[in-house]
Protein 1
Amino acid sequence: MEYEEPKFFHVMQYAAAADGDVIDMVSGNPDWEPPAALREALRDYADLSPDAFQYPPSEGLRELREAIATRRGVDLDSVIVTNGTGEANYLAMARAFDRDAGDEALLTDPVYPYYPGKVSMLGGTSTLVPTERDGGLDVDAIAAAASDETALIALNTPNNPTGAVYDLDAIRAVVSVAERVDALVLVDEVYDHFDLSGEFESALTLDSDRVIVTSGFSKSMAITGFRVGYGVFPDGHVSAAKTRHMLVNVAGARPSQYAVTHALAETDPEYYADARDLLADRVDAFTDALDAAGAEYSRPEGAFYVLARFDDFPGTMANVKRLIDEVGVAGMPGEAFGHARGDWIRFALVTPRATEAAERLADHFGG
Amino acid sequence: MEYEEPKFFHVMQYAAAADGDVIDMVSGNPDWEPPAALREALRDYADLSPDAFQYPPSEGLRELREAIATRRGVDLDSVIVTNGTGEANYLAMARAFDRDAGDEALLTDPVYPYYPGKVSMLGGTSTLVPTERDGGLDVDAIAAAASDETALIALNTPNNPTGAVYDLDAIRAVVSVAERVDALVLVDEVYDHFDLSGEFESALTLDSDRVIVTSGFSKSMAITGFRVGYGVFPDGHVSAAKTRHMLVNVAGARPSQYAVTHALAETDPEYYADARDLLADRVDAFTDALDAAGAEYSRPEGAFYVLARFDDFPGTMANVKRLIDEVGVAGMPGEAFGHARGDWIRFALVTPRATEAAERLADHFGG
């Protein structure tokens, strides 16, 4: 599969150029407030002495790494602060391929389009393995697809775009597959604060030397533009990942890391709970409307998205454009996420107008 | 050559652990104030609405790219804002190798250690080509070394570590060599604001489709920790570089880009002139002391560094440690910069104690 990122831009540009009022359910940018402590820390940072404006340690500010290590229950040495979760995923994938253990990546289908793009850039090949109808992991299919060529198995939970939260037992079974074929397992947990099921368990609890876990603060603190993510790498892989991080980026941005460090220390659990509750309310409103519209969907267990399928209205780019023009709602065509969900449309719920959009869809398809 | 970065850490850790008072002339971090407008912009940013905290465009904030394009006299489309000049260099090198035009990089010797590290990470091989004794480009040596295997020729002017400012005619001749062997020329101009010779001319004036110019604001605004750099890529290469940038980093940090954008618009030329004058004064004081110490050196035409050679005191790691313990001055061993200057020591002048360090060296070696 080609790197599909331009489809995002294509849809967003089409929506921006539309005549009528269009509700943007394309992008995954949170629309709510960042923590107050984050704003305050930025103000404080602006007044620090010049030495505080120079390179942070390449692997990230020590206080931030310590806070991450404590919260995630891992060794400080295993934590690399990266330029967003995107860089952490890149470092993890590069490490998987650099081991001379094959050049195939197994990715779930539907897939977050950046994953096959990164794999291809790193000289690897992607094999898409369909998930269950509800988005759950199909461990048997992954086991059947795995071979000596498999260097990497990449999982994302809570999942973009399906909203699935994977069972820890299923992830454990995938790790066993990885052990059999000498692959690494990347588990991208960037939506970990948006578990609506109450059943999310981090793959870090498996304590496996095959598992690299990535996450970040883009979603949990509503700061996708700050670019603060991290990877937790097992002993045998952290050194190579640190070297690549240094050679690509030298270090991440210190104002961002400083602000996140303080926000992490000074933000109450209520902040995260409120954002999660807001999202849960939107899921309720949106799925009620999907019921009224007679659409098929899986109720998201986490993350920001709902995948929906309308009768006789496959999620092609052409139909996504019709939805923009005729209904005033912009979603992402399912074909952007691999092969398995070409009939579906992804709606991102990170807009205050999610309920309004739901009503428009219910009126249009349910009418 | 191996990636030599750990030597920096080794020297800095040794200096930090030393008993006596040690003047740090190892790191290249500016020690002066950033522009006032940069601090002010950070404060303003802290109060913006949540949408200003989300992803900037992948290639950078448009206002920042426009300001760069205008100042450098290039097309807006050719400018990619990166996570520091380091990432811009990585993108440029990756592009050179991705063309299937060979896997060799010609690097000048002495060399900035990140360059061979990046080349090696990208699967290339580095050939070090010695410069002239004064650090000037040896075009004939580069022409002799170039072959069909050469994919990249990397130059840095003003140069770290030699302080040389390359003649534009010499760079033009290197570009001709690159044309002959189908190589790209990377010209890293991150020290462009610290031209002490008055003769620096950007390689952008060559308007060559073989030349990628990189630079950034780390040095010119004294903000190495903000990670805002850029690359100017010719038509045939900018799209591939943008894709790699997006797949590795998604985007750079928006608070940093916002602050730099405003500082660029609102900072008087005097700010840059003052920093340059400060550095020139330090060069005077430091080279006077080197004269008193009977050392060989080339007076830097630009950048932050002086390479010096003391009689019967080659710049080995052991001697660098003796200098820390016995003289209280920490420099970088010449062996960290390739093969050509193993007898030399690099001193960074970005400390308010540069004059004091000079006196210590004069007392020790001149006594």
Protein 2
Amino acid sequence: MLKKLVIVGVGLIGGSFAMALRNTNMVERIVGVGRSWENLSSALGTYVIDAAETNAVNAVADADLVVLAVPVGQMGGIMQEIAPVLSSHTVITDVGSTKQDVIELAMRYMPEHLERFVPGHPIAGAERSGVKAATDSLFQDKNVILTPLPETSDDARNLVKELWQKCGAIVHEMPPKVHDQIFAAVSHLPHVLAYALVADIAARPNASDLFQFAAGGFRDFTRIASSSPEMWRDICLANRDAMVVELDSYLAQVNRMRDAIIKGDGIALQQIFDAARNARNAWISGGSK
Amino acid sequence: MLKKLVIVGVGLIGGSFAMALRNTNMVERIVGVGRSWENLSSALGTYVIDAAETNAVNAVADADLVVLAVPVGQMGGIMQEIAPVLSSHTVITDVGSTKQDVIELAMRYMPEHLERFVPGHPIAGAERSGVKAATDSLFQDKNVILTPLPETSDDARNLVKELWQKCGAIVHEMPPKVHDQIFAAVSHLPHVLAYALVADIAARPNASDLFQFAAGGFRDFTRIASSSPEMWRDICLANRDAMVVELDSYLAQVNRMRDAIIKGDGIALQQIFDAARNARNAWISGGSK
């Protein structure tokens, strides 16, 4: 039983984690920290949190667990603020989409707390944001990645793991570098590619004609281009090295297809299309996607 | 009232057109032409068509309207077959995703019928295919583009236009070159880009790890990579010139974003992401997408 859970950043992820944990009866009191009173009072009004604070320093005293659920770009500032006042029993975790950079921040700003720091990343959420989009089932059957440090204690790791499992999540552990490579490929790259297509089309003199005739395929391909620009800017910069590797691999693939189109090489094109369709269909049929 | 409508290729598009037209009571008899008896008997069994033929030549005699609803790669062969037996009153239309190449085929293979040829493209359909996916509401509120030739008569054009409108579609006319440019940008390019991402990832040694952690954003981005490889190969080759223009514009955009990531230029990245999100949200809020 946790007496006090502090969620810094009561948005879609932080709010949903609070709601899911409340259902488990493993938490006595949930304190939300945020920059906007509007969002915090919405979280209070819907009983997502029991108390609200705009100052993280005031909130974290005596916390059993602090969850950092702010954009990656704000993570360092928060760590620096709270490090001096964290109790020696407080476990800290985060939900950032990149892990190597969050770990670097933790080593710089709260080196005395690494034993109780469990870096994490729930694979959930959508282009919606804010606590109004939060739901207690957001993590049901979703993957959560933990990337513990060599310093992280088993107790801290097991606590965070258990809490995510109680929220219905499937918990995996892997090294932070592997995490960042995997998500550069399957998440960060597609976001950049979707933003690129819409930005490219929106900049044309005939953009309104183009959008008029864009249909369902375009809509789904570009859905993630409605995501938070601030969040994805931070992710691209935080995961720069892996992003460039993925971009170069992808650009090489597109250039091979461009060559095949120019040469009229239908056999090469169809081989690529077949390989892609077969792989995607096998993936889709492998589970609920 | 049409006494005889012939649909060559009773798949998703051809079958749905037949079903929608039957509801209008504007057609007396619908004959389906196909390569596969399995598909044709399914179409017969569900009353999508009244009669089935595997030979287009036998089917088209005395037809009032012939709809060519086969992949673009098969269009020329069919035209060549039926041209000698088409009646002098038969109107011909097609549903091909590219228009300049279909028109070139018509000029080559049925030059004596151009007065009654109305090239068309309904913007509907999905990665599903076959008559079993057909529905009489597929074209409701969907755009249909007609790209008439200088030779096309007003009577033929008006007939085809009226039929599509009776199916619930919104009919537009534009030059074939403009059509091919627009759909290279908003449809053909995204298909190539989605196939490229899945093919790139499927070829990795750690592909199974990557797919294991791919989530909803990846699923929607790549949905169109489950489309028919044969159809999309034909489209890429048929619309080669416009495709290369679009690919190069897109690659330049992605390279600008790659540069910004390498330089750590968060301002430039966020400008692009903001422009894309704003454009997409404006598009989505403009109507049912």
